[in-house]
Write a structure and sequence with these properties.
about 30% helix; 25 strands; 10 helices; 7-stranded mixed β-sheet; 5-stranded parallel β-sheet; about 375 residues; alpha/beta; FAD/NAD(P)-binding domain
Length: about 375
């Protein structure tokens, strides 16, 4: 696909304005892509738009440190407007509610809609909630991050006395440990449908369970919470615990509009892509949690690595050049924050995170996270 200067901006029409490139979402992949475009000195076509629900891109890797009280709120976010201004991109604060890929039309929650010639989707996922909720407890989804932050700020003034974290992955472990650091008197529990950290292997799981036990966090494995009624969490008919609040750090589920977009989706509703991160419609690229691709897991580590491929391929789609293929790494480094500045590490079969090594690993994690933020924040200050 080649966009000429004449095509780059079209006048408004009866059904909405047409834009040369629309970037939906400000996830990790798009953030990396914007940085690489700036560093390369490339300007996207005039009229390019970034759609984001807020004015900042939040880095989820620092969320546990924020909850534990180790980071300030402003250290976990990147201002989007300066990045957009450097690239001549218009920042549109809204959320996508629908996509008609056949009509090349995106609908927004503010009632507006727009047409695109090229679309890139990096709008993420949402956690799975129990099927039955009677409203008796406060519900806090870990994603999207801006909504989590808003509710979290309220909790800081009135913290519930008993909180259950739902989920068996790294995020659930980190949130539980962070909450214990910030609220030592709170009753904390964690419930998951299978083994804790089952995708990371038994060695890391054993370490994590030891840390949770020392933090006095009750763990309910093989306990899928499918109902919360009268402040009681149930796994099937088995009552687990009485709670005041529930944090959803469960596995990713697709946003409803993905499957209604006319793009090919997998059985879970995520958008299928090829190795070039293209959907079934060559005009639509997808990255991060929204994408379905064998070998690419839904985590920040993989989303960040989508960024360079997306940066090249959107440029190539504009100019008609050859696309690059994304190759998922066979092993990904996992650093799980323990709330007190330490971390557990997993890379393939190699696992560390005892009392002696955890502080060193925590400093390494902080260095990596803060380096990521520095690389992007410096570009907003020029």
């Amino acid at each position: 696909m080649i966009l000429s200067d004449a095509e780059s901006v079209q006048p408004p029409d009866a059904v909405g304005r047409s834009y040369p490139v629309v970037l939906a979402g400000a996830g990790h992949a798009h953030l990396v892509m914007l940085r690489l475009w700036i560093e390369a000195g490339w300007q996207p076509p005039a009229g390019t738009v970034l759609i984001s629900s807020g004015s900042k891109a939040w880095y989820s890797g620092m969320m546990p440190g924020l909850i534990a009280g180790r980071f300030e709120l402003n250290t976990c976010a990147i201002a989007l407007l300066p990045l957009c201004q450097r690239l001549g991109i218009t920042l549109l604060q809204a959320s996508v509610t629908a996509l008609d890929s056949q009509q090349q039309r995106v609908e927004l929650d503010n009632g507006e809609h727009l047409h695109y010639q090229l679309l890139s989707i990096n709008t993420g996922s949402q956690p799975v909630a129990p099927a039955q909720l009677d409203g008796s407890v406060s519900i806090l989804p870990a994603k999207p991050f801006p909504e989590f932050i808003h509710q979290w700020q309220h909790w800081q003034t009135q913290m519930p006395s008993s909180v259950m974290v739902l989920g068996g992955g790294a995020a659930a472990f980190e949130l539980g440990m962070a909450l214990r650091q910030q609220f030592p008197a709170c009753e904390l529990s964690l419930a998951c449908s299978g083994d804790l950290l089952q995708s990371h292997g038994p060695a890391l799981r054993t370490l994590a369970l030891q840390w949770l036990a020392r933090a006095d966090i009750a763990v309910y494995e093989h306990s899928r919470v499918d109902a919360v009624m009268h402040q009681q969490a149930f796994a099937g008919e088995l009552p687990l615990r009485r709670i005041d609040a529930l944090i959803l750090a469960t596995g990713a589920s697709a946003l409803p509009w993905y499957s209604r977009s006319a793009l090919t989706c997998d059985s879970q509703g995520f958008i299928k892509v090829d190795r070039c991160l293209r959907s079934s419609d060559a005009r639509v690229f997808v990255a991060g949690d929204a994408a379905s691709l064998a070998g690419s897991l839904r985590s920040g580590v993989y989303s960040v690595r989508h960024g360079p491929v997306l940066a090249h391929n959107l440029r190539a789609a504009v100019s008609g050049h050859t696309l690059l293929e994304y190759k998922p790494q066979s092993n990904a480094l996992a650093l799980l924050a323990t709330g007190n500045g330490g971390a557990l590490m997993s890379y393939g079969r190699f696992v560390l995170g005892g009392q002696l090594s955890a502080p060193l690993l925590g400093r390494w994690k902080d260095y990596l996270d803060q380096s990521f933020m520095r690389r992007h924040r410096l570009l907003t200050q020029v």
